[in-house]
Amino acid sequence: MEELELKSEPLHPRWHTTDESEVWRQKTNRWRNRVRSHVWRPATDVYETEDAIIIRVEIAGMREEDFSIFLTGNQLTVRGNRPDIQEQRAYYQMEIFFGEFLTEVELPGPVLSDEVTAEYIAGFLRLVFPKDKPKKIHVTE
To answer: How many CA atoms lie within 13 A of 39 on its CB side?
Structure first.
């Protein structure tokens, strides 16, 4: 049986040379920059009924003038800004996002864009896109 030798003790921190620390810091910062952005994405549901495609976005604490809705082709964009509470505080836990947000959804099928309805109730923005059903073409003989 081969015996293994531990080169460092697991309960002690590993010290890095200046060069190793710089490489680690650069790698960590690159990862953070990719993951963290100043724009957050609210929870968004997309589902389909027999007659419509429905999109529901959870953005509590908003007013209608705080967000914009755009439909370009089959791409829906909801963007806005949820203002932060202006008071001094020390957080013990922070899970509620503030500031600029953006959610983009590709609609799964053709819709009647002139008949879209939107309502904002109890912190949920609900958009209903009536489906553009295919029309059957009869061929005459």
So the answer is: 8
Here the tokens at position 83 are 């203002």
- Residue 74 identity (one-letter amino acid): N
Contacts of 80 (CB under 8 A, 6+ apart): 59, 62, 66, 67, 68, 100, 101
Residue type, 65: E
* Contact indicator for 99, 81 with CB cutoff of 8 Å: yes
Query: How far is the C-alpha of 96 from the C-alpha of 135, rounded, in Å?
Result: 46
CB distance 108 to 53 below 8 Å: yes
* pTM for the predicted model, two decimal places: 0.67
User: What is the tens place of the pLDDT at every residue in 40-84?
Assistant: 999 999 999 999 999 999 999 998 888 899 999 999 999 999 888
Give the tokens for residue 68. Answer: 């914009």
Domains of the chain in sequence order: 44-85+98-130 (2.60.40.790)
